[in-house]
Amino acid sequence: MSSDPTDAAAPDRPVPDRSAGIEPVPGVAKPDPILRADGIRRSFGGLTAVDVDHLEVQRGTITALIGPNGAGKSTLFNLLTGFDRVDSGQWTYEGRSLQGLAGHQVARRGMVRTFQLTKALTRMTVMDNMLLAAQGQVGEKMLGGLLRLWTTQEAANRKRAIELLERFKLDTKRDEMAGSLSGGQRKLLEMARALMVQPGMVMLDEPMAGVNPALVQSLLGHITALRDDGMTVLFVEHDMDVIMGISDWIVVLAEGKIIAEGCPDDIRSNTQVIDAYLGASHDDPAAATGEDR
Amino acid sequence: MDFLSIFSAALGSAIGPIAAIYALAAIGLNMHFGYTGLLNFGQVGFMLVGAYGVAVSVLTFGLPIWAGFLASIACAIVLALLLGIPTLRLRADYLAICTIGVAEVVRLIYRAPVARDLTGGVYGRQGFADGFDDANPFTDGLDLGIVSFRASDLWVMVWAWGLVGLATLVMWLLMHSPWGRVIKGIREDEEAVRSLGKNVFLYKMQSLVLGGVFGALAGALIGLNQQTVTPDQFMPQVTFYLWAMLLLGGAGRTLGPIIGSMAMWFLLTLFDEILRGLDSIDMLPFFGGPEVGAMRHAIVGLVLVLLIIYRPQGIVGDRKEMLVNVK
Q: Which residue ranges does the record assign to the ABC transporter domain (chain A) (predicted)?
């Protein structure tokens, strides 16, 4: 994972375009995929919620997963992170299969998710929220906790947590209950907490949902900073402006299937995407010109 | 009415062996509900296997008392595993239904005719506490002026309050460690904790086992205190007493269950004595005699309702924590 890019490139995109030269077709192979999924299927009763033939996520990019309501974005998220069981399919992270692993095992491998409805642990302090996310704690074993074998490790974790909280401008809130934070601050806390796990890939489920517009820019800045630190980001989002602005690569889901993939410019002009969002028979002039092509 | 004797009776029951035993079982329930958020309505089931663990080991198998205590702990662990493996993945409300059901099933199995050779069926077990009594170093009772205890009570009190102290220390150490932080996280939102790489099921199981062991030790002490166990003293209402004590004292606090148990027994005895006193001088308007016993529960119930309304966090609860907007 290189982090050279600061000298190259435009100010708003300091990382070299890692998705350049990839053909914008659904299920296309990437040069260096961190996540690869094949034949992921999940149905609820008669409804097939997710039916993804092949998906690769390029390392070190921000990949957006978009699609109309009910397209199966969150379900796919849940499946990939072990929070739901697939009917069939296999997927690998960093070359190792994640199939059949539970949610906590996936997180330990380095793929950490957040939730659409923010899950700040409200009756715990901000600091405890952060410390909870540190991995490999001796004190989290019953005997280790009882015998107080954890104090030095805890001090190191606390130091790291403070650094992260400073980065997310939450350090002044460290001893307050997480439940007293505003919606946007909770999103920030959730992101900081995910970083405390030291993940290789962060999965953000609608990170902008319910956040006031003033804070959206700051959240976007934090997301691009994750990529600049060498992390891979996969996120679900609705707001098109947000997606077009920060994504390196966009995957479009509709009715559980991937209907398009590409960089923002490809997606903007893709007729199938416009059809999926607006319905096949519409009078939108922009789409009409697309159909002529 | 003799107010001093009423007060002395109430105080005696607040620091007596029964209050200590209930405090111990409530500490277990505090582990389950107060910290982990598990709705366990079957704590009495752990007390039952604990009581029979000692009784059956000593009487049926002729083992010494200390081995009986180990058997009690082992029974609690087995029950926690049997209860937890299928149910801990359920949502909290389903877990509640399962626990109350399992506790009843356990009681019915222990009183069933097929188990009579082992458990004595409906007649239970008597006379297993001789070894415990023989080891009693107290020859005289203790008279503190306003309250006094018999030598046999003192011996149970030493054990019961000793175990309460030990359990409280263990709980304090655990809940102030990273282990306790995970447990509290599970209470808040187990999905979030899972997403941070913690095996939620394992933690819930550890919590169920630990709280169950405290319940079983309380059950063992009930048996030794009464020198007898019968299945029907472990009815579901015992669990509800424990819940009332825990909420009265303050769930999720180290001292909550102890203060709750002492306060509850103090109030129960106080109202009982006052009502009986009033009854004896014909001051009770609508009822009397046998109804007094039921009336004291009604009054304690009223106190609990008022408490939930005006002090929902319990006597030692943290109001700040209660008032935090939960979702």
A: 35-280
Tens of pLDDT along A72-121?
888 999 999 999 999 999 999 998 999 889 999 999 999 999 988 888 88
pLDDT tens figures, A160-186 = 999 999 999 999 999 999 988 888 889
Q: With the C-alpha atoms ordered A169, A172, A177, A182, is the resulting torsion angle positive or negative?
A: negative
Annotate B50-61 with b (16+ C-beta within 10 A) or e (fewer): bbbbbbbbbbee
Has residue A215 got a pLDDT over 90?
A: no
Angstroms from B251 CA to nearest CA on chain A: 13
Sketch out chain A's domains with CATH numbers.
5-119+201-209+227-292 (3.40.50.300)
Which parts of chain B fold into alpha helices (H)? Answer: 3-15, 17-29, 43-59, 65-87, 92-111, 116-119, 130-134, 151-175, 178-188, 190-195, 200-226, 236-249, 256-280, 291-310, 319-323
> Choosing among A98, A108, A114, A142, which should be mutated to test the B contact, i.e. which has the most B CBs within 10 A?
A142
Q: Are B163 and B219 in contact (CB under 8 A)?
A: no
- Count of beta carbons in the 10 Å neighbourhood of residue A42: 22
Amino acid identity of residue B129, one-letter, is: A
CA separation for the pair A214, B176 (Å, rounded) = 38
Torsion of Cα atoms, A153 then A157 then A158 then A162, to 10° = 160
Give ipTM to 2 decimals.
0.85
CA dist A111 → A57, A121, A199, B2, B255 (Å): 12, 20, 6, 70, 40
Q: From CA A286, how far away is CA B299, in angstroms rounded?
A: 74
Alpha carbon of A192 to those of A124, A239, A290: distances in Å? 15, 22, 41
- Closest to A38 in 3D by CA, of A50, A46, A21, A24: A50
Chain B nearest CA to A119, separation (Å): 6
Specify the CATH class of B3-320 in words. mainly alpha
Is B130 an interface residue toward A (CB < 8 Å)? no
